[in-house]
Write a structure and sequence with these properties.
- By secondary structure, the protein is an alpha/beta fold.
- It has 2 domains: 6-43 and 95-175, no CATH class; 46-90, no CATH class.
- The protein is built from 7 helices and 5 strands; from the N terminus they run βαβααααβαβαβ.
- The protein has helices spanning 14-17, 60-71, 75-90, 95-101, 103-106, 127-136, 150-163, and strands spanning 6-8, 26-28, 114-117, 142-147, 168-172.
- A 3-stranded parallel beta sheet has the order 3-4-5, with helices on one face. Strands 1-2 form a two-stranded parallel ribbon.
- The protein is elongated and about 70 Å long.
Length: 180
């Protein structure tokens, strides 16, 4: 295990405290809570950040109806929409920037023979990381993907298909037992 590297999506020090893995082998991609990092939480849908386009009007009458309807919008609704936009702006997870900031870690990928993914939900929000890893790996790299639910399994299948990875091995998490 001393040559292994760990890409940790969790904010805790479980790999260190429970498994004795040296922190210099772990990239806490979204920060580490006990280290006092600014934790990266949120979503990856930049649609929430884009301003609404101004509608196109075919006539002066359409424009006037639009202006009249704006006046009918409740101020509280507008304020609530601004609060939501602000929240989504603060919690936007810029995966491209995060990957770029951690390029040193990803440079090691061509030396990797096996990938083990444990305890991940395979949510779309993190797919950019998987794309980056896959693009830098040798073509014959094997992927071992743990899953708990059928939904996880389906997301694994979809992700691996999207990545073009054929040598992957789903492992049901309930089949993993602790040695005594």
């Amino acid at each position: 295990m001393p040559n292994n590297l760990y890409l940790n999506f969790n904010y805790t020090d479980t790999l260190e405290s429970t498994y004795g893995i040296s922190e210099d082998r772990i990239l806490y991609i979204h920060g580490k809570a006990l280290r006092g990092d600014s934790l990266i939480v949120g979503h990856h849908d930049n649609e929430y950040l884009s301003p609404k386009p101004t509608p196109r009007f075919e006539s002066e009458e359409e424009y006037e109806r639009y202006i009249d309807n704006i006046g009918d919008v409740d101020f509280r609704d507008q304020e609530a929409e601004e609060v939501i936009k602000t929240y989504f702006g603060r919690t936007y997870k810029n995966t491209s920037k995060i990957i770029s900031q951690n390029e040193d870690f990803f440079r090691i990928m061509p030396q990797i023979a096996e990938i083990y993914v444990l305890g991940h939900s395979y949510s779309y929000i993190d797919w950019d990381y998987f794309y980056k890893i896959k693009n830098d790996l040798p073509a014959n790299c094997s992927w071992f993907m743990s899953f708990y639910s059928e939904d996880d399994y389906n997301r694994i299948s979809e992700l691996m298909k999207d990545l073009g990875v054929q040598n992957y091995y789903p492992i049901r998490i309930s089949n993993i037992s602790k040695n005594k």
